[in-house]
Amino acid sequence: MWAQLKGLFSNDIGIDLGTANSLVYVRDQGIVLREPSVVAIQAGTNNVLAVGEEAKRMLGRTPGNIVAIRPMKDGVIADFDVTGAMLRHFIQRVHHRKLIAPRVVVAVPSGITEVERRAVKDSVTHAGAREVYLIEQPMASAIGVGLPVHEPAGNMIVDIGGGTCEMAIISLAGIVFSRSLRVGGDEFDETIVAYMKRAHNLMIGERTAEEIKIKIGSAYPLEQELTMDVKGRDLSTGLPKTINVRSEEIREALKEPLSSILEAIRITLERCPPELSADLVDRGIVMAGGGALLRGIDRLVAEETYLPVHIADDPLTAVAEGTGRVLQELQFLKRVASSST
Ligand code: ADP
Ligand code: MG
Hints:
Layout: H1 2-9, E1 13-17, E2 21-26, E3 30-36, E4 39-42, E5 48-51, H2 53-56, E6 66-69, H3 80-94, E7 103-108, H4 114-126, E8 131-136, H5 137-144, E9 155-160, E10 165-171, E11 174-181, H6 185-200, E12 202-203, H7 206-216, E13 227-234, E14 240-246, H8 247-271, H9 274-283, E15 285-288, H10 297-305, E16 309-311, H11 318-328, H12 330-340
Parallel strand pairs: 1-7, 7-8, 9-15, 15-16
Antiparallel strand pairs: 1-2, 2-3, 4-5, 4-6, 9-10, 10-11, 12-13, 13-14
Helix pairs in contact: 3-4, 5-11, 6-7, 6-8
The protein binds adenosine-5'-diphosphate (ADP) and magnesium ion.
The site of adenosine-5'-diphosphate has 20 residues, from helix 6 and helix 7.
């Protein structure tokens, strides 16, 4: 009752500012918005024409006077103004006519600079927030999947997003060691585009590559291997063509980006203090982010690290759920936010 009444005045907001997808969590309501992190603007101006799904449909298909931008693409905030416009758009969509300005928690990539942090905070303040807290995405992800981050014990999270892969070892609500690499689902797609060109002389777009990855992609041999018809442009004739592709070849193509992720996991484990390493033997590694949905990635990581590997129940919402939990625990909010801002 009190929560509902309070909701009339103000609703605190959690935002997962992802490189591929942004999610907004409203306190007492849960995740209310889920959109691709894409903004369409009028060329040469800062006029925002569309944000999210609508803007994503324009990617690669825009006439000269419109540009569709993924402002967070490489895990750094490539375009401050566009990122700011996107944040304001999302906040305004969920926060209408409330009497009290909301408190906002934004989960940002752990690799961003001080200048970028400031830019995010300023944009959110401009959008009407009363207070802004930043939290690192791997921390939000760990909280979101329900890891006992407050305990004095080692927890490891690996979050594979679109533009980045973020991993961290967390103990006592703090990040003991973290690493962010610019390899994620987008790179998987790019590798598939290059492979189709090299092996089949077929030119495909990135959206087709993503479809191949989702439909038949894998990181570990499948019990039942899969095939798929792929349409593209034959590079020698210049004409449209369909080719049947097997999951084995796509797995081979994905080896390279996957090995960079495995390498980073190995380095993270090497840097882990021994007591926490011992904890990981039992607790293992938890994986989240859209990339954790790649078939067999848990088995690949388990085989390489000799540790148990668990995939989050809903890898795509882990970070947003984490921001939601942080909103619910004010005490915790203050502690986590002060250690990361
Ligand atoms: P970010 O946090 O960077 O916004 P997400 O966690 O939303 O990224 O993950 C987006 C990435 O996950 C994209 O590269 C997308 O292609 C990939 N992805 C989504 N579903 C699957 C799937 N079923 N299999 C493999 N990759 C997937
Ligand atoms: Mg993410």
